[in-house]
From TrEMBL:
InterPro entries given in the database record: Cyt_c-like_dom (IPR009056), Cyt_c-like_dom_sf (IPR036909), Cytochrome_c-type_DH (IPR051459)
Lineage: Bacteria, Pseudomonadati, Pseudomonadota, Betaproteobacteria, Burkholderiales
Entry superkingdom: Bacteria
Transmembrane segments: none
Segments forming domain Cytochrome c: 56-143
Coiled coil: none
Signal peptide positions (record): 1-23
Species of the source: Xylophilus rhododendri
Protein name: C-type cytochrome
GO molecular function annotation: electron transfer activity; heme binding; metal ion binding
PROSITE patterns: CYTC
Length: 183
């Protein structure tokens, strides 16, 4: 038997033993139910698939924004200790691009998704769907994308055409299309 086989046989045996040990059940944890997973199954696709029921107006969004967002993002989305949200229109092709919701983001639905998952920074996932729709409407209004009297729901939000939508290259992988969802 060659020296290399003498090396690899014990290594292979060790890997098999490790795999066998990892397959053991230790009686910890429990199987997750659909009910336990539901509060975390909140992903929203670019086409709006996954958006919940609800609706929110720009006016209601201003109230939520003032209470929950302005301290970090500025009174009008101009930025503060957190990113700037408004402005930057037409700046991406310049030497000093300003990346904001209105100048950079390709889909309004992903704005909803981000706010829903991560905001407010000190208490993520605490806003109700109506509050998230409202803040989304307000931030879109700050960027002159929706009118002051706009009221957004799942259908209306998915229909919003962002200024930089065509500024991105589509992902050609078959599992990432606009309706690709996990099983």
């Amino acid at each position: 038997m060659s020296a290399s086989r003498l090396f690899w046989l014990p290594a292979l045996a060790g890997l098999c033993a490790l795999a066998s040990a990892q397959a053991q059940t230790y009686g910890l944890g429990q199987a997750l139910t659909a009910q336990a997973i539901a509060p975390w199954d909140i992903d929203v696709a670019a086409d709006g698939a996954g958006l919940p029921r609800g609706r929110g107006s720009v006016a209601a969004g201003k109230l939520v924004y003032d209470a929950q967002c302005a301290a970090c993002h500025g009174a009008k989305g101009e930025g503060g200790i957190a990113d700037r949200l408004a402005g930057g229109k037409g700046s991406l092709a310049t030497t000093k691009p300003v990346r904001t919701v209105g100048s950079y983001w390709p889909y309004a639905t992903t704005l909803y998704d981000f706010i829903n998952r991560a905001m407010p920074y000190t208490a993520p996932k605490t806003l109700k769907p109506e509050e998230v729709y409202a803040v989304t409407a307000y931030v879109l209004h700050l960027n002159d994308i929706v009118a002051a009297d706009a009221v957004l729901d799942a259908k209306g939000l998915a229909a919003v055409r962002m200024p930089n939508r065509d500024g991105f290259v589509a992902d050609a992988r078959p599992d990432t299309g606009p309706t690709a969802r996990r099983p």
